[in-house]
Amino acid sequence: MYVLVVSLNPITVIISIHLFLLINIPFLEAQALNHTKYYSDCSSATTVRCGEATYDQIHYPLWGENIRPKYCGLEGFELSCENTNLVIDIGYGNKFRVAKIFRSGMMIERYGDDHLNDTTCDPKFNNTILNEKLFEYGQNTKDLYMFYGCPLELHIPVRSGNRNNFTCRNGDKRKQVVFGVQSLLGDYFDRLNKSCKTYIRVPVNGFYLEIFSDVGSMPLEDLLASSFGVHYKINHTACSDCGKSGGECWKNTDLGVDPKCLRQPGKLIAAGGGMLLLLSVLLLLVLLILCFRKKTKNGSSGVSQYVSSNNVLSESEKAGTYMGIPTFSYSELEEATNNFDSNYELGNGGFGTVYKGKLRDGREVAVKRVYENSFKRVEQFMNEITILTGLRHPNLVVLYGSTSHECKVLLLVYEYIPNGTIADHLNRDSAQPGKLTWNTRMSIAIETASALLYLHVSDVIHRDVKTTNILLDNSFRVKVADFGLSRLFPTNVTHVSTVPQGTPGYVDPEYYQCYQLTDKSDVYSFGVVLIELISSMPAVDISRHRHEINLANLAIKKIQGDALHELVDPTLGFESDEEVRKMIMDVAELALRCLQNERELRPSMEEVHRSLKEIQRTDCAKEILRI
């Protein structure tokens, strides 16, 4: 019997490994270089300009010709630029214009020449059918059913103050069109399906649907043109984990499989090259030891290593966040405000002074002039543009445009809201007692809650909710303003850590203590606003007792001490009108929940909005019974 004996000489082993790496490193480099293009194309969000609008945050699973390579996304998530509109097909040929892109989804709206209005007897487009394998509707998107060709004698009950139908002319005959969400139509849905000629189902924005349902509040075409939310049906957790590890979701993979995580290929080369370098040095040292083992070692060898890192953070240029808003010249805005005359000054807003102005086209505007061009101010300036250009809601102030980011003086141009702020009508010298009735204050509360709920659904936290940031038009309709401190909130997280900012008297105490910002921070601030509407007292008043300087503390003490009557504005009829008394007590109880120190105990903005609507609806129902 022969036994094969292999001598594992250390030098032989090292040389063998060295040769193996020399052979395979080129393969590793080739593989890494092949991935370099993928990583370069897919590792960061893409910004694209389509028509007058600029869109950023285009990342996995989105792709499109001349926008982002197909291998960066998923089949079915293709974007295209058509007639100056960024368009996506959400399923079965249903194309929609992209209004805003989020990490987990987007806001989309109809586009094209086909419109419905409240004089049209026949639908001009088909049912909107969502590809449920790829998309799902956002939480505030509702399916509106519209039944056409219904007999006039068909009557569907509707709650007071709302509408669910209109009449139109079809040739020489008048017909009825009935609309509503299925949950509200209830048992009448099947009856409508049998009695009417046809129906269509279209997704709409739930906020606008509420406004539309109120008699005469909004035309049908405006409702159908409003943007609504859709979310991608992908593994967001896997993509989030991939991002945290320095990678990026990519590849046109099957929806049923977790997306692949693309990592920086340079690390692969560095790992192999580093191993090769280490073994080369080790081999050299062993050879030196063997050659000079009989000699005295008088010196010591050292290995110096130079490591360079070129990891430059790739951030989008601030100018890329304008999203197509018009830019004004400094001279035009200087002329509009009479050289920023102090007599035109409306007040101070967040990070600048606001002036009233009149543009050359006749529009009255509010012009915010940033205090100074420090990095922080420029960041707030750009933040407000980024937030407002992506949001559309009837109770949010409209941004008309700005000066260029290259202009030495940064100016923002908004629609002018003529009736001041809530604070002007509550606790200033200019306030007129009794002008804001309780019913008006309830409407203000509901509209403000609606705006904040829309922000939260859009992953935005306002962070500076207060009565001086809530504007009123001549009909006392709400316009929430001042988004300089607002934050776009990441998906799949419970909070973000940030240095507390805001206004004393309104800031969430847990935010101060833990530096954790959540949507419940806005809920706390709104709770203070509710107390101001009840009491007409300012959020902070140093003339009050030291334990009552903060209105939130005063309110909690009065409400829990069964002394609400001491808090309520005496002009509201709390003592003389039983219905007003009941409503104020319900709103005070809701405000108390909003002002809880622990955010987990506070209601969501959706619950707050729903509760206020229910309080108002109950009062309306009692009014009808009395009639």
How would you summarize this macromolecular structure in one to three sentences?
With 627 residues, this protein is α+β, with helices and mostly antiparallel strands. It has 16 helices and 25 strands. The chain starts with 9 loop residues before the first helix and ends with a helix.
Structural class: alpha+beta
Number of strands: 25
Tell me the quaternary state. single chain
As laid out across the biggest beta sheet, the strand order is: 3-4-5-6-12-7
Shape: globular
For this structure, what is the CATH class of the largest domain? Mainly Alpha
According to CATH, the fold-level topology of the largest domain is Transferase(Phosphotransferase), domain 1
Number of helices: 16
> Mean of the pLDDT scores?
76
- Give me the Rg, rounded: 32 Å
Q: What is the CATH homology-level superfamily of the largest domain?
A: Transferase(Phosphotransferase) domain 1
Strand content: 15-25%
What CATH architecture of the largest domain do you see? Orthogonal Bundle
Characterize the main sheet: 6 strands, antiparallel
Percentage of residues assigned to helices: 25-40%
Low-confidence stretches: 1-8, 27-31, 267-271, 294-323, 489-500
Domain module tally: 4
Transmembrane segments: 6-28, 268-290
Enzyme class: transferase
Domain Protein kinase: 340-612
Keywords: ATP-binding, Glycoprotein, Kinase, Membrane, Nucleotide-binding, Serine/threonine-protein kinase, Signal, Transferase, Transmembrane, Transmembrane helix
